[in-house]
From TrEMBL:
Keywords annotated in UniProt: ATP-binding, Helicase, Hydrolase, Nucleotide-binding
Lineage top rank: taxon: Eukaryota
Enzyme Commission number(s) of this protein: 3.6.4.13
Catalytic activity: ATP + H2O = ADP + phosphate + H(+)
Molecular function via GO: ATP binding; hydrolase activity; RNA binding; RNA helicase activity
Name the record gives this protein: RNA helicase
Taxonomic placement: Eukaryota, Metazoa, Spiralia, Lophotrochozoa, Platyhelminthes
Family per record: Belongs to the DEAD box helicase family. DEAH subfamily.
InterPro entries assigned: DEAD/DEAH_box_helicase_dom (IPR011545), Helicase_ATP-bd (IPR014001), P-loop_NTPase (IPR027417)
SUPFAM superfamilies, per database record: P-loop containing nucleoside triphosphate hydrolases (SSF52540)
Length: 191
């Protein structure tokens, strides 16, 4: 049985009608059917992000410089793709070291780790994990991309001031100035 379904949509200037009707087939009785023909494969999604065209240049700069500053629009892949490019380039291959990616908020650290684990088709906590206050999801020796809050990296530095367990440190969202970010910038500069 098909029923009329109403969905919201954006209005164009001069339009008054807020609702558009669509026909939806309800014959599946409680199950949800997703038509995935329009959804691109994850690799195609990754390659369509703006960071992809700069991948080689980014890795070259990382190889030749102690500090690389990356700027880009929201959604361009800085937080999700750059750590994967570093991993795929072999920066932590054969080691138990981490690529650390700091985030100002707990939710961002968890969400990004979950997304990258999905993109890498691995279980969260294996190759990709997170570390936040009172909670962690990673396996030492197996996890290589580790998302964490700014405060957790500061805490790590109290135990290991040179961050010897880390191969690359990405300080993300540094434009959101805070005491922790400013402290991290100063501490990491001394390594």
């Amino acid at each position: 049985m098909a029923i009329a379904y109403k969905r919201a949509r954006f209005l164009k200037p001069g339009e008054e009608d807020l609702i558009v009707s669509e026909e939806i087939d309800e014959s599946t009785e409680g199950s949800v059917v997703l038509n995935i023909t329009g959804i691109r494969h994850i690799d195609q999604q990754r390659q369509s992000l703006p960071t992809f065209k700069w991948r080689s240049h980014f890795l070259y700069l990382l190889e030749t410089s102690r500090v690389v500053v990356v700027t880009g629009e929201t959604g361009s892949g800085k937080s999700t793709q750059l750590p994967q490019y570093i991993y795929e380039a072999g920066w932590v291959k054969g080691t138990s070291k981490y690529i650390a990616v700091t985030q100002p908020r707990r939710v961002a650290a968890i969400t990004l780790a979950t997304r990258v684990a999905e993109e890498k088709d691995c279980k969260l906590g294996n190759e990709v994990g997170y570390l936040i206050r009172f909670e962690d999801c990673f396996k030492p020796g197996r996890t290589h991309i580790l998302y964490m809050t700014d405060g957790m990296l500061i805490q790590e530095m109290t135990r290991d001031p040179l961050l010897q367990n880390y191969r690359v440190i990405i300080l993300d969202e540094v434009h959101e100035r805070s005491l922790q970010v400013d402290l991290l910038l100063g501490l990491v500069k001394k390594i």
